Amino acid sequence: MSEETTPNDAPSGGSAGPAVDADATASTASTRRRSGGVPAAAAAATAIIAALIVGVAVWFVAGGGGGGGTRTEADVSSVIAAFSQGSDVTRYEGQLPPGYPKDVPVYPGARLVSSILQYNGDNVAYLAVYDTADKRAKVSAYFAEQFAADPWQIDLSHDGLDSTVQQFTKIDDANIAGLVLSGESKTDATTTIIYSVQVTGGAAAIKRPAFSPGASKALPDGYPGDAVPQYTGSTIIESGFSKQSGATTYQVSFVTKDDVGTIVSFYKDLLAKASLTVADGDASQSALKDAQVVTFTDAAKTLGGQVTAGAFAEDESYTRIDVQVTAKKPAQ
């Protein structure tokens, strides 16, 4: 299966001509289009097109090699899970998340399979997956018509070998932007429709359930807990590792009610006692609010990493601690 990339074509919807006179705004609302470029929210949508296409390709390949040669609900789970990595993400089965813009066109008769909601500060992003038995050409033609009509406009369109993408913005609400991708299975009569929608400032309108850290996850096997232990009294919310040639990198996240200053002091003292070189790190790249970073390494350069502590986005009464540790095999 070929892998597509997003072309640098001009937006299919085009931009309007001369500015509309203020007195004529009401009479020309049905044909007016934004000028002056794509809003920031729409630009953010462009960045995920390639990832969506790759995800759909993986999805269909998995379906082709699975039981009976058809795409299964397990394949849906795999794709959704891939886009659900990271913090502050909630998955919904067979329903749309709270706050999802209800006026975004839905293909008639399509079945909603799964969706996710992700918070990013004051903004929210949605991913929704639908299935239909109709052909991709019919599906994409429907969206081309729907998103070319008020209150929508198409800012980018790409019809490729394996999928069709239409990126859209909303004329009367610059805070809403997104894209819809349609991909047809090569092994069964299924066209999958994937929406990615961003709502700038959308978090304020959603009533979020009270956060509960739940049961603590286990530390990864081989994690160097003697040198870089779990913060006292914290709950592990994420845990993982990756292996490279001669080294393993561990990533673990905790939440605690303790403040950032207390956590940073804890790790600075503990890491120094473990004979590690400790320094203040650069917190400017952290997504955590009011973050502080501590870096550490041993004399032989076989163990190093950093600890980042900052406000937990889902509930700022908690502090999130992200620990990254790389352990290298000693030179022979």
Provide a descriptive summary of the structure in words:
- With 332 residues, the protein is of the alpha+beta class.
- It folds into two domains: 22-205, no CATH class; 235-328, TATA-Binding Protein.
- The chain is built from five helices and 13 strands.
- Helix 2 (49-65) runs antiparallel to helix 3.
- The chain is elongated and about 65 Å long.
- Mean pLDDT is 78; it is low at 1-54 and 56-75.
Low-confidence stretches: 1-54, 56-75
| Percentage of residues assigned to helices | 10-25%
Terminal CA distance:
44 Å
Strand content: 25-35%
**What is the typical, i.e. mean, pLDDT?**
78
Label the structural class.
alpha+beta
What oligomeric assembly is this protein in? single chain
Strand order of the biggest β-sheet? 1-2-3-7-6-5-4
Strand elements, count: 13
The arrangement of helices and strands along the chain is HHHEEEHEEEEEEHEEEE
Question: What is the helix tally?
Answer: 5
Largest sheet: 7 strands, antiparallel
- The outline comes out as elongated
Supply the number of structural domains: 2
| Rounded Rg | 24 Å
Question: What is the element layout, followed by pairings?
Answer:
Layout: H1 40-47, H2 49-65, H3 73-83, E1 89-93, E2 111-120, E3 123-132, H4 136-146, E4 152-159, E5 163-170, E6 173-184, E7 191-199, E8 235-244, E9 247-256, H5 260-273, E10 277-280, E11 289-297, E12 303-311, E13 319-328
Antiparallel strand pairs: 1-2, 2-3, 3-7, 4-5, 5-6, 6-7, 8-9, 9-13, 10-11, 11-12, 12-13
Helix pairs in contact: 2-3
